[in-house]
Amino acid sequence: MEIMIQVQGLEKRYGRRTSPAVAGFDLHVEQGQLFGLIGPDGAGKTTALRMLSTVIESSAGEGLVAGFDLKKDVERVRRNIGYMPQQFSLYPDLSVMENLVFFADLNQVPSRKKSERINEMLAFTNLADFKQRAAHQLSGGMKKKLALACALIHDPEVLLLDEPSTGVDPVSRRELWVILAQVVQRGVACVVTTPYMDEADRCHRVGIIYEGHLIASGTPESLKAELPFAVIEVKAKPRKTMREVVGNLDEVIRWRPVGDRIRMLVEDDERIVGGVMKQLESALKRGECDLRLLRRDKVSMEDVFVHKIRLRNGNGGKND
Fold this sequence. Notes:
The protein is of the alpha/beta class. The protein contains 11 helices and 14 strands.
């Protein structure tokens, strides 16, 4: 597969005395590959995407996007990418159709192809029945679909999406990812930032960015396999007693609450896992707890994410 994004050591610094917003950022994305960039707010996700899209110039580093140099061939890079910023950036008073026409003209879609391409995007995003509706009258999910259609109108080789599913309902979020999967199947290289760990599992490869640094990168499966622990999940009432019981077990390396449950990490050894589960069951019964759930669970991307950031911070405490 052809490499569509290849950057090394990208850095963005705002002012000489400040720490860089992004530093030492390396990335390669192949044709037809979906790369997910995950991290907390302020980690540098948006800054990284803005450098890749040439919206801002990097302070250091180099790279190629769609085969063109990020600094020397800015206009060629822009002609070959589709960029969808986090905030809705279309024209609210224009209709769906008018927005598509405007962005087709802006991206110099040939006249002979423009009508065909617009109709393709309307069908592709299921917006054909709403083409005369003003953009500001669309639902959140429809606005995201329109923004995606406008980013794709000129048939780019690379697609850069900044948290495309943030702020939309679960159904619209699912629909967006179905559309995105179809885009990637057509051979488009895509980088998407997301705060949702379940969306990271949908990507071919994932990078974790924290405090401006890419601290881990790989397939979701390989990143999960790197976690040297087993996961046990427990749910019991009263919660206070459940927390005390979990916190007093020496074999528990780390634990954190997730909703009304607790997820804990223990050594990945069947005897230890079985022993911890027996101890939990006995201790919770002695504490007259209502035990609702006790099981070994699969490692999740959220487990990986929390573990990598704790390692970065040098945090050795048991409770997250």
